[in-house]
Amino acid sequence: MSKFKSQTTTLFIVVVLVCAFVPAFSVEEAEANLLWNTCLVKITLKCALDIIAAVFKNGTMPDPCYNDLVKERKVCHNTLIKYIADKPMLIAHETEYLKKSDDLWKHCVSISKSA
């Protein structure tokens, strides 16, 4: 029960943070909410943080996250990475981050197909 409560609390925190970012997107609010609600249920917080670290900090991802990323769908992955890369302190390297994001996506798809 405590694990469920912890996961629910974590999900709530992620939802609040994501909702704070939604107005920055050039998508209709209803569409953005649908996209985020769809994306958040397909990936664990740990994998989301591992993916962000892999793209922005040269981190590594554990194997279970490859399938989570593919289940998340490319549109979700791209939206999150693009949003983060557009931040003023990261925008100078946005092209590099987007390339790393695409490379990570391709690698995860190839790993998940072979599994």
UniProtKB/TrEMBL annotation:
Residues 1-26 form the signal peptide. InterPro entries: Prolamin-like. Keywords: Signal. Residues 38-109 form the Prolamin-like domain. It comes from the Eukaryota. Pfam families: Prolamin_like. This is Prolamin-like domain-containing protein. It comes from Arabidopsis thaliana.
